[in-house]
């Protein structure tokens, strides 16, 4: 079955990174999954993703010096494949890996995802560890010059060796056995090297080889626009910025990124605006906080992500979600766009404001998003001719966040938008 | 009326540059227009475009030293607006400009286009010439630091002055009076400067202001992919490469360009693969020749341009067209794709071959183009699953150049393609 | 006679730019020359240099919009050679050029210099003006693509044409007739183009051809270190930074530049730290002010320029010099280094301090400069071994600004230096 | 004692790399040392340097795949310090290291050098090995992101940790015990990173700390001209090109490098033109050959290296030296320049020829080198005025390679130079 047909709408879920950094454990993952099943699942949220260094012992214990402790103990099987750290994921003991946790999540009606780093563990190369079904050993497929700038765990592989594909196949076979539905592969997206291209292809082939459908998500950004065709062919989502956090300049900058990538949104292949830093964040980083975004900024973020059709991944600790945030994440009309905003395009953008427009994939209705990027309350006006509808006369405009309805009276529509805020209209 | 709705299919026409360089005259333009009206018009060919330096005296007479003679006499009116060189365009005498020539072409049922350089003539600035309906003079709006790398005629304008927009308005008013339908603006497309953005917008506003619809075509390439949204908003076509000539490596390279721009083809806004260097070329450059492209390469070029939906502009001297070339340019089935290839995308590309696929905008038929980029005859095979059709079984494949029809038998289709050649199939 | 032997010590003088910008006139130049002859000459100050656009009419009258009014009237002779603007330099009337002013300055026992821009006036090219002793005209030697980024007056020349050398010869013949002793050529120093190399060589040949010795000074900076050999061969001084002004970060940065260029100081060829922005500055820029440098910073500047052996060019309006500044500029012991600091080298530099050391060219004495680059008073210590003298024991250290004398007692010498200040010792 | 005073003339010696690559063994080193002692020592040749990977087992055995076998066995002591591979250096067994070999070489009246890579062995970091006199372990000082592009053995150190300096101290203590006189440190010279600066300083401090004088030689090139002051302060020699081999374009290019660095030659600090690829070369690379350089090219190389005062390191297998090569390497008059060419400077250089000139440090004689860089026999002429001597009249010119003597007759001297050849004159 075609890869893209599996993912006709952008993936929605939760990711452990923004709150836990490297420290998340099994109990915490389950608690978030429980919350999702109970409160979010019915709105389309379904992926539960364990982010970076689930294989690492003592993760987060030297946070003053390192985000990732170099040269440290990792859980690894005899075939150079990383396994969950048993200290944090006790159900993984005795070689069970993530299967018990994945089973738990599947029973909740949800899907399970993990983060991996491109390549093979450095320690496997230095110790000449075995590879599954191969006469070669890890040192023979590891490329000693291919490292990640910011994480010390892996070597890239020698992309011309079939045993390197074999290694990727061997880890995806394991993930398939566990029941993994989503792979976020890191250190693979923003580099301008032929070998990065090749390792993306190897991941794709390993997923096909294992037989279990898995979303392939590439990090970190910013992805390279000149590689767009390649991402679209081999991956399902790819990050269009570096790590996104609760800081207004980063959100404002996302409009520039979405301008760049707007033509590249398609079924099964999604430019990714990164996780939503809402609710409580940062505990694993040593600075637990409630999001720095104002409510208006969160409305702006949700509006942009949904009309653009970015994947939606929650960064918040779900068990601490407040009512306002939960409501914001479960606005059915807004989330409808995530699946059904078609041909979304930026109509205009300057330093003060941005306007986006799209059609519904099924109905004869249009969507219009008005964003105030300035630091003052602002009237934003738009001429219907710019939108390829002739006039607003006789049209109804329903705003999805406030539920207010306005009648179009002339060719021009104008409305007040709050500081850093947004309005999202259905026009019919 | 919306700009893009005017140009629902890529413009098709003839341009004087490839054969005449800067030297074309009125008689020659008319002869080419006559030929087009008689032999090509019924197939959709309609624009007749006079390329660079129609205002320059003695153009081409110092070709050993200069392509563009610097600091030389140009025809210019009292308001700093360039007019056709009367030596070469005698009907333009007495301030009639290109109106008589445009009338002639319109009477043939064709459309008329001209090339311009961004900015205002240097000589107007140095002589403090007047501007239409303005108290300012040319020196006040000319930017002495904004020049073209390769042509000495113009200064860019001071983009923050409204009189600069006024100057652009004044020249487009003149072009509208003449009856110009197509503007190819040069020295504006490949630069990564805010002022280039601004001058593109000024051209757009000047077209809107003059009230006559005109195709806005931007040169030279390669256009910048990060400016795609801006080109799409303000122009109708923009060059995706530097000047394209009859040299195989340039044609092979176009596949890389089309990969990059494939998502950006839309009604009224077309990435432009540049003129078709077929037939007789190069006389004005001092090296008249029959195209260096083999027939196979020309088939490859036409197939790529049409499935991708590039504008088609003929570089050949039309009065010297041979039968083979004329037939190639008037293959109705192939040209049908130019208007009706929808969602065209590259399926694969490597050093040896490329495959493209699209749907028809109206019928339930598909198009498949197989390109042999290698230097050997090659069997190219394709799995239907890669094309989002399930199988070739029971399907009919009609090749548009040979008119041969094959029956699909399995999930895979394989066929032999000649060196540097292409096959273009309709699948139904 | 060898070029470099003429200038065995770095040139010292005054330049009109820092105070007058483009506006200086004959009376003002004379007033500054008079002051120099009376108060500064005996200390070695001798050049009086008229900086940019002495040929331009209305210079400075549109300062809100332009530093250099584009496309404006200039004084020019029939052979495309710029002459002084008669409005500002009345003695130049009737084709006398700068000869009367140069004579005046020479009679004071001083030397006369002018600023020129690389190339030929744009207006000469556009008007096809004549060239001295040539059948060619200005348009034939002007390069329409070679312009200055920041000044609109000139086109560079076609460096492969002997008539271009002829044009440079013709202007230097004129300058020789006038009695010019110093040429500051602008728009020629920081560019990484083969043609910049060639125009420097043309200037050199034109000086040789005219027969009158002239210092050749190149601007603007920063000069390119990889071109050092070329500057040394063809010029006498070249700017190692962009324009230098009375702003501490620029002065602090000069230490980095001097580190880079320290090995390239030699008789007749001097890396140039640019003019000394002391006293009153900025009138022509519309912001007349007393220098923003503190006294300590000025001591630092003079100490660095002198031990490094930069040319010394005063930016101040001399007629307004206060006693402190005049004393600082006429410290004979400090100025002695300008001529006699040999093998000066940076001993150390970090963000807080810098140390320089040199020998005297004639006596067995050493110079030691200690600079406090930090924002606090600071004890600076230095081990004699770092200086290639074995110990300070028994040595006398005389500080040249305070005239205080200290006795060295150990291998280490330590002294307190004020914020942004310097001490300069003679060790004997 | 001052570092630079130890090395008043450029080091001369032999290096194992060009012939043996990574494979050299004790017997081979001794044979070359024996030859040097017998045939070369009296002419100043004295260093015997064991190049890269003397610590590696099986070095060179996988030459089809790797120059440096990654993740392979190395000889290492308990404190993370590499030791010689006992297989190749049997006298190093039982922890004796290079002491027996160094003793052997010292007894011949020669000096002993080794190559090292910047940093600490990767295997030490992964195995948490101990550090001498420290509570920290190797993993704590290794920087997992600091690797060499082309060699897989080491990690750079965390330059802000004093234990990192401690590690460098510990290895240099060992080298001092062994009797090492020369350290060629690799992967440290051409990078534009603050940490590279810091590791150079650490090497310098480690040499000072160990108390034994050692030449500090930095590789690979090209060194950065903007770092010249830093190299001069902390090192004795640094490579000004990437690896130099017996290929004319590389030799021709060296003239450009020497132009750039000519002002930076000083006692104890030498820009390094790299090893002399003469005689038999390349065995360890699998392509043993007699040098590709013609005799004329070798004369050119020796002349340039000597007048410029580059260190001289022989790449040849000494035991196979032929008479011509031996004679070329032992021309006393030419080698005299290596020590006594003062103020050497390029007089001119273009694509066809180059001229260098210098004075003797002690006598009132001058040196003049004429190089024919073209592919034809060429008369090269030089005007005495360009050389700061007034005339050749009455002067004697002795050519050092041919021993021929000419009398100067006029201001100009002209002589024929063979293709790619050189002449080197003493003028007195």
UniProtKB/TrEMBL annotation, chains A, B, C, D:
<dbReference type="GO" id="GO:0005975">
    <property type="term" value="P:carbohydrate metabolic process"/>
</dbReference>
<keyword id="KW-1015">Disulfide bond</keyword>
<protein>
    <recommendedName>
        <fullName>Alpha-galactosidase</fullName>
        <ecNumber>3.2.1.22</ecNumber>
    </recommendedName>
</protein>
<keyword id="KW-0732">Signal</keyword>
<dbReference type="InterPro" id="IPR041233">
    <property type="entry name" value="Melibiase_C"/>
</dbReference>
<dbReference type="InterPro" id="IPR017853">
    <property type="entry name" value="GH"/>
</dbReference>
<dbReference type="InterPro" id="IPR002241">
    <property type="entry name" value="Glyco_hydro_27"/>
</dbReference>
<feature type="domain" description="Alpha galactosidase C-terminal">
    <location>
        <begin position="352"/>
        <end position="427"/>
    </location>
</feature>
<dbReference type="InterPro" id="IPR013780">
    <property type="entry name" value="Glyco_hydro_b"/>
</dbReference>
<dbReference type="GO" id="GO:0004557">
    <property type="term" value="F:alpha-galactosidase activity"/>
</dbReference>
<keyword id="KW-0326">Glycosidase</keyword>
<keyword id="KW-0378">Hydrolase</keyword>
<dbReference type="Pfam" id="PF16499">
    <property type="entry name" value="Melibiase_2"/>
</dbReference>
<comment type="similarity">
    <text>Belongs to the glycosyl hydrolase 27 family.</text>
</comment>
<dbReference type="InterPro" id="IPR013785">
    <property type="entry name" value="Aldolase_TIM"/>
</dbReference>
<dbReference type="Pfam" id="PF17801">
    <property type="entry name" value="Melibiase_C"/>
</dbReference>
